[in-house]
């Protein structure tokens, strides 16, 4: 019998939060304006945090706030105000990495649930047990822990100490995100949520006696992006994750779009539910992984070192090795072009996000269902003028259609292949 498993989705802003709720998240994690590891995300003010928690709780969804930076002395002094506002907002737990911060939370807010962040670097059950003694309710394991090690940790910790693990998203080239490259090269500290991602850059060598002459860095003639990690995708291996005893499946991506949050949550919700019911996961779930903007996929460290490779029946989903040497760009076959505001009486109201034409190959992404092929009958600007082109971002247009889908369904178009 599997443990009750939570699907945990990222919410970088209020829009992403709403999509996470609609598309099936059991819980969301988000950041305030300080103490979080994603400075590039919009994050939440105190007022927005209160609203977010109220909105999520009405839907039966939990909210976890991040507090996972390595804090300075000055920040320690400001921390009581931060954690007090989080508690007043009604968050369900705080995700913390620093031992001092964890002990401070116990002192300030003894009833607040604490999750030990992946930044803590938890790779064995002894560390998990010590954190448990400190009052930690859940450990977010380092991404470098494989499935067999997770089973050992589960076997050797109390039943009420939960295990959370990342199952999808970007991978960091350093151990559990503890990286100094960004600060050295740009002054932006990755351990304070400001990473410039220099591991994705293209590098050259310069020979000492010939300054100004640059030589491209190659590895086995495959390219020069020597630090560029693939993205993780475990959608094909839900059963293995459940058998390992993981309590929470975490999707990376607080700095990514609401469209990303919706698609990943939708796919993993369906995959998790089907696996728990011992049903076959529908093929569209795997297809969705390739319709999300992503780097080439791998299975991370779950089956050992990524350099050893990982197998799959679908080469488009899982590819061998942990690094990708050709480039650092994203694979993107579809563009998000519109968000549905409402449907009724043969009319769809849609807010335009990106350019599309009525003749484009379009699909509607619907919560907890397979995507729908979509051919608009007629399309009108807000002025009432008929059009075959939607080219004004954030303008609301009207589409005549007999398809009825809920609010926050998403419209996307297939990108024409370059010749």
Structural class: alpha/beta
Return the CATH topology of the largest domain. TIM Barrel
Number of distinct helices: 10
| Lateral arrangement of strands in the main beta sheet | 1-2-3-4-5-6-7-11
Unreliable spans are 219-224, 308-320
Percentage beta strand: 15-25%
- Which overall shape is indicated by the principal axes computed on the Cα atoms? globular
Mean pLDDT across all residues, rounded? 86
CATH superfamily of the largest domain: Aldolase class I
Q: Can you offer a commentary on this structure?
A:
- The chain is an alpha/beta fold and 419 residues long.
- It has helices at 14-22, 46-58, 73-89, 99-108, 125-133, 147-155, 181-186, 238-243, 258-276, 283-291, and strands at residues 6-10, 27-31, 62-67, 93-96, 113-116, 136-140, 162-170, 204-206, 214-216, 231-233, 248-251, 297-298, 334-344, 347-352, 356-357, 362-365, 372-374, 378-380, 389-390, 396-400, 410-414.
List the helices and strands and how they pair.
Layout: E1 6-10, H1 14-22, E2 27-31, H2 46-58, E3 62-67, H3 73-89, E4 93-96, H4 99-108, E5 113-116, H5 125-133, E6 136-140, H6 147-155, E7 162-170, H7 181-186, E8 204-206, E9 214-216, E10 231-233, H8 238-243, E11 248-251, H9 258-276, H10 283-291, E12 297-298, E13 334-344, E14 347-352, E15 356-357, E16 362-365, E17 372-374, E18 378-380, E19 389-390, E20 396-400, E21 410-414
């Amino acid at each position: 019998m599997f443990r009750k498993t939570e699907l945990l989705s990222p919410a970088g802003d209020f829009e992403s939060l709403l999509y996470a709720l609609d598309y099936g998240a059991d819980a969301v994690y988000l950041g305030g304006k300080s103490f979080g590891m994603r400075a590039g995300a919009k994050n939440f003010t105190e007022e927005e945090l209160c609203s977010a928690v109220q909105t999520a709780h009405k839907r039966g969804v939990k909210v976890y706030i991040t507090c996972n930076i390595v804090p300075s002395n000055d920040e320690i002094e400001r921390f009581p105000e931060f954690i007090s506002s989080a508690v007043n907002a009604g968050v369900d737990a705080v995700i913390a990495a620093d031992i001092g911060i964890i002990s401070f939370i116990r002192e300030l807010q003894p009833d607040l649930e604490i999750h030990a962040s992946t930044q803590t670097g938890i790779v064995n059950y002894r560390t998990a047990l010590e954190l448990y003694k400190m009052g930690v309710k859940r450990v977010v394991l380092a991404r470098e822990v494989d499935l067999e090690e997770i089973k050992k940790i589960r076997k050797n910790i109390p039943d009420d100490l939960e295990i959370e693990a990342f199952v999808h998203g970007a991978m960091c080239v350093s151990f559990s995100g503890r990286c100094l490259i960004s600060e050295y090269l740009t002054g932006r500290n990755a351990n304070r949520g400001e990473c410039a991602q220099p591991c994705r850059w293209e590098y050259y060598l310069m020979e000492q006696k010939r300054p100004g002459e640059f030589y491209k860095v190659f590895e086995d003639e495959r390219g020069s992006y020597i630090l560029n990690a693939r993205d993780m995708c475990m959608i094909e291996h839900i059963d293995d994750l459940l058998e390992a005893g993981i309590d929470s499946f975490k999707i990376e991506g607080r700095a990514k779009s609401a469209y990303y949050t919706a698609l990943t949550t939708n796919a993993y919700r369906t995959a998790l539910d089907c696996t728990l019911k011992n049903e076959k996961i529908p093929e569209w779930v795997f297809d969705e992984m390739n319709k999300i903007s992503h780097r080439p996929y791998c299975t991370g460290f779950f089956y050992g070192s990524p350099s050893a490779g990982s197998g799959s029946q679908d080469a488009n989903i899982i590819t061998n090795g942990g690094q990708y040497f050709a480039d650092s760009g994203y694979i993107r076959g579809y563009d998000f072009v519109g968000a549905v505001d409402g449907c009724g009486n043969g009319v769809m109201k849609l807010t335009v996000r990106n350019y599309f034409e009525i003749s484009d190959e379009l699909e509607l992404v619907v919560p907890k269902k397979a995507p729908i092929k979509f051919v608009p009958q007629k399309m009108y600007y807000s002025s009432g003028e008929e059009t075959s082109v939607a080219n004004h971002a954030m303008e609301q247009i009207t589409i005549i259609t007999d398809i009825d889908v809920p609010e926050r369904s998403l419209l996307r178009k297939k990108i024409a292949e370059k010749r």
